[in-house]
Amino acid sequence: MENEAQKNTGMKRSVTALETMAIVVGMIIGSGIFLKPGIVLKDAGSEGMSLLAWIVGGLITLASALSIAEIASGIPKSGGLYTYMAEIYGKRTAFLLGWVQAVISYPASVAAQAIAFATYSAYFLPINDLEQKFLGVGVLAFILIMNIISTKCGGVIQVLATIGKLVPVAAIIVFGLISGPVAQGAGTAQTAAQGTGFGMAILGTLWAYDGWIGVTNMAGEVKNPAKVLPKVIFGGVAFVIVVYAAFNFAVFRALPQSAIIASKTPGADAAQALFGKSGAAFLTAGIIVSTFGALNGYLMTAARVPQVMGEQGQLPFANVLAKVSPKFRTPANALIFQSILAVVYIFSGTFNTLTDLLVFVLWIFFTMGVFGLFLLRRRSQPKKGTYRVPLYPLTPAVGIAGGVYILVSTVLGDPVRSLIGIGITLLGVPIYALMMRRQKQKQ
To answer: Which of 40, 180, 187, 238 is 20 to 30 A away from residue 213, measured at CA?
Structure first.
């Protein structure tokens, strides 16, 4: 199966287990870890319940990750969830996901990471909004060139950026844990009484755990994906659970609850409390590295979706998008396509709106992906010696429950955006019909 996948993509299986792990960790840990502690604490109502929410959210994510890992092990091909949808639910359903990912979701996410990099860079550089956009395009261009030259370059960048982003996180954890607990004052009991709900706290953590599934887009280039993907997905998500719990505990020791809840940047405030005035600069530098790594991870994994869709003839200019660079053996055209769309979103300023609109839709497909494990098991049992999700069927059931919870919460919280997201997705139906008609005419 590996030889078949490699033959289809024309790309090298050059991505190592370490680089794959860096993609998982690097795409999960972004700026959210520095911003979310106050929101989750406010909803949970106390430090203990807040930590529990981070752990429960992580376990729900882990259950989904382990379930998708079995599918990835059985279908070790590039394209990730798009490819799994095609195998389990058919080409039309897969196209709707791929259309949303390739044209809107992934390039908008790339644009968001590029602008985040430029925005935090403005802490050190005196640049205005327009100059920030040009800086964002500049760093995107650099990462694009590196990924075109070699997937190995992208992998090395991902490893280095992931290590770099963990430095300030580790520093806050270590110094926060060894320092004495801060005096809480009268705000503690008052805060505990104002918690809006443990469920909302879990919802907040689930957003922070998002991103790990992007690594499955590159299964066709991972060395021995059937064995490597389950291990790195489990190891990466489990590692992030520990990091998130430890980071929040350190923040709780560095700042009083009332200050954490009142702050929009509790991570920066904790760094300043631990390291003085230089703490904010230290943490900002860490966030810049973090967004740089996330940008590289998103662009690297995003390009594999339009490239595979091009192979299937499911997008306009399919032959161009499907083509692999004969010199570098990378999906150069798909990388350029995603980058051009990202630049459009950067200058139009629509990236946050687009990603917000499609959160609901993407979680529909994600939940369907986890449920797909039941369908695959019904069709055929995994081959002996291949990866099987532990505690089946409980594990995928937990993942599905988490997905359904997010969907219900999103609909209740913002029904208009949810409907708009569905509408954007359904715009792909006539495009799919047109592309299928063209395929029949060529036959």
So the answer is: 40
Residues 275, 175: Cα–Cα separation, whole Å: 9
pLDDT in tens, 63-112: 999 999 999 988 888 899 999 999 999 999 999 999 999 999 999 999 99
Query: Within its chain, how far is the Cα of 220 from the centroid?
Result: 19
Q: For residue 362, what are the CA distances in angstroms to 97, 106, 147?
A: 8, 11, 26
Residue 243 CA, distance from chain mean position: 16
Residue 200 to residue 409: CA distance in whole angstroms? 8
Q: Give 277-322 pLDDT, tens digit per residue.
A: 888 888 889 889 989 999 999 999 999 999 999 999 898 888 999 9
CB 71 within 8 A of CB 373: yes
- 325, HSE (Cβ side, Cα atoms, 13 Å): 16
Tallying the residues shown for the chain, one arrives at 443
For the chain, list the domains and their CATH numbers: 7-438 (1.20.1740.10)
* CA-based torsion, 344, 93, 402, 54: positive or negative: negative
**At residue 88, what is the residue type?**
I
The terminus-to-terminus CA distance of the chain in angstroms comes to 27
Residue ranges in 184-223 assigned as alpha helix (H): 187-192, 198-208
Residue that the structure tokens 């469920």 belong to: 199
φ and ψ of 222, to 5 deg = -85, 135
* pLDDT value at 231 more than 90: yes
SS3 88: helix
Other beta carbons within 10 angstroms of residue 324's beta carbon come to: 18
The distance from CA 79 to its chain's CA centroid, rounded to whole angstroms, is 15
Reported pTM: 0.87
Residue with tokens 């520093």: 171
CB 72 within 8 A of CB 213: no
pLDDT at site 142: 97
Report the alpha-carbon distance of residue 284 to residue 434 in Å, rounded.
47
The mean pLDDT of 253-275, rounded to a whole number, is 88
Rounded to an integer, what distance in angstroms lies between the CA atom of residue 334 and that of residue 419?
29
CB 17 within 8 A of CB 232: yes
Tell me the C-alpha distance between 198 and 144, whole Å.
41
